[in-house]
Design brief:
Blueprint (H helix, E strand, L loop, with lengths): L1 E4 L3 H4 L10 H8 L3 E5 L4 E3 L7 E7 L2 E6 L5 E7 L3 E3 L13 E4 L4 E7 H10 L1 H27 L2 H16 L1 E3 L2 E5 L4 H8 L3 H13 L3 E3 L3 E4 L7
Helix pairs in contact: 3-4, 5-6, 6-7
Length: 228
C-alpha cells in the first residue's frame, strides 16, 4: 500500500456526500486526508482493526464482507467509485466487524480520520443527515440480501444478482445489457450464499438457453425481461 498527502478540493467534490459544504470545511478535510493505493486482494482494513478512519473509493473495486462460522467468506457489498467505505465507524463502531479488500489492481482511496469527520458533522447538520441516509441505504441493502437468502433458492439468488448488477452497473446495447466486472465465480457464490459449482451450473444453463453469454470479465444478458 502506498500513501501520500496533499489534495485539491476538486477530488472531494466528486463525492455527493460533500456537496454544499463550505470552502473552509473542504480545506479542513484536504489538509488532513491521506491517499492510498492497493494491489489486488490487498486489505484496506481487516476484521478486528480499529475503526478510526473512513475511506472514499476513488478508483478500482472493493469487496466488503465477513466470515461464516465454518470459515466461508460472505461478501456483503461489491463497491465501485465514487463511494464511502467503513461508514459504520461514524455510527460508533470501535473495531471493524467486516473486512474490505481491493479486488482490482490499482485501487485508490482517500482516507479521513473519524474524529475529523465527526467534527464536521457536528458543525454541519446537512452533512450529518447525508451520512445517516447513506448508512441507512447500506443497511437496507444488507436486509434485502438477507431476505433473498431466506426466501429464494440458489438459482433465483444468482439470477437476482445478475439482474441487480445489470441495473446498477450494466450498459444497454439494444435489448442486451453488458456487465463488465472483476468477480470470479467464487466471488459470485460468496455474494449469493451458494457454491462455486452451483454458480457454474446455473450460469452454464442460462448460456445454453441463450439467456446470457459470459467470459472472465463480462456478462451479456440477452434480454432482461426473459431472464428467469
Amino acid at each position: 500500500m502506498n500513501d501520500k498527502k496533499g489534495f485539491s478540493k476538486d477530488i472531494l467534490q466528486l463525492f455527493p456526500l460533500f456537496n454544499g459544504i463550505s470552502e473552509d470545511d473542504l480545506d479542513f478535510l484536504c489538509a488532513r486526508m491521506e491517499e492510498h493505493s492497493f494491489d489486488r486482494l490487498q486489505p484496506i482494513y481487516s476484521t478486528g482493526d480499529r475503526s478510526d478512519r473512513i475511506f472514499l473509493l476513488k478508483k478500482g473495486v472493493v469487496k466488503i464482507g465477513g466470515y461464516a462460522d465454518d470459515g466461508r467468506e460472505v461478501i456483503k457489498h461489491v463497491l465501485h467509485p465514487i463511494t464511502l467505505i467503513g461508514e459504520l465507524a461514524l455510527a460508533g463502531e470501535l473495531k471493524r466487524k467486516d473486512f474490505a479488500y481491493a479486488i482490482k489492481a490499482g485501487t485508490e482511496a482517500l482516507s479521513i480520520r473519524v474524529v475529523d469527520m465527526q467534527h464536521l458533522m457536528r458543525k454541519d447538520h446537512r452533512l450529518a443527515m447525508r451520512v445517516l441516509e447513506f448508512i441507512g441505504m447500506r443497511l437496507q441493502h444488507v436486509e434485502q440480501r438477507l431476505e433473498s437468502l431466506i426466501f429464494k433458492d440458489a438459482r433465483e439468488r444468482i439470477i437476482a444478482f445478475l439482474k441487480d448488477t445489470a441495473q446498477r452497473r450494466g450498459r444497454k446495447v439494444g435489448f442486451e445489457t453488458l456487465i463488465k466486472h472483476t468477480l470470479t465465480q467464487q466471488d459470485i457464490a460468496n455474494i449469493t450464499g451458494t457454491s462455486r459449482q452451483t454458480v457454474t451450473s446455473v450460469m452454464n444453463d442460462l448460456r445454453k438457453s441463450n439467456l446470457i453469454y459470459f467470459n472472465r470479465r463480462s456478462i451479456l444478458i440477452r434480454d432482461m425481461s426473459k431472464l428467469a
